[in-house]
Predict the 3D structure of the following.
Amino acid sequence: MMKEQNKTKKINETPALRRLGQSVLTTLCSNKATAGALALLLGGGLTALAAGSGSDNRAPEVPEDIAVTGNYKVHFHGFGVGVQIYTWDGVSWGRPVPSATLFDDDGNIVATHFAGPRWKSNSGSIVLGAVVQPTVTVDTNAIPWVKLEAVTTEGPGIFADTKFIQRVNTTGGKAPAADGTFIGQVASVPYTADYFFYRQTND
């Protein structure tokens, strides 16, 4: 069951985030599917990262329900910009399929995020995740914060040996409020999120 949290933590925008916004705009301005996500990211204000990108190994502050406990440590963080794709089945919009690009702190593209849900790094590593219930609704206008357990990983690179993933600091991405007008209608809803990837450690 989805649980709601009344408080959400936002930190002041940093120069690194401003650089990220400019780089994302330059990279994705020609992609119509992500135009709305850029509006959320750059026009609506940047939600600060709970930890730095790339080499930073600090875990984000999250509700207990989606915390990763035990001998696990963040080994990679990326900022996702993209869309959640919904398809009207005549009754509901169903489960969304993600289509997003992950950036590091300097605005470099490091990975893609797509159906599965899966993440694929530029170096070729892939991780498939499965949501661990419950999810947590921090912002009623955004998709939930979630913890995922890695089902499989393959290939060398940043996602090799990943055990858990967290999706936090979400904006947008919710299903349309209005019903669809025909079966098979597709709605691509812009969203952004921070993704944290964990490996097991001996510490």
Summary: Residues 3-54+65-200 form one domain. The chain has two helices and nine strands. Residues 1-19, 40-56 have pLDDT under 50 and may be disordered. The chain has one domain: 3-54+65-200.
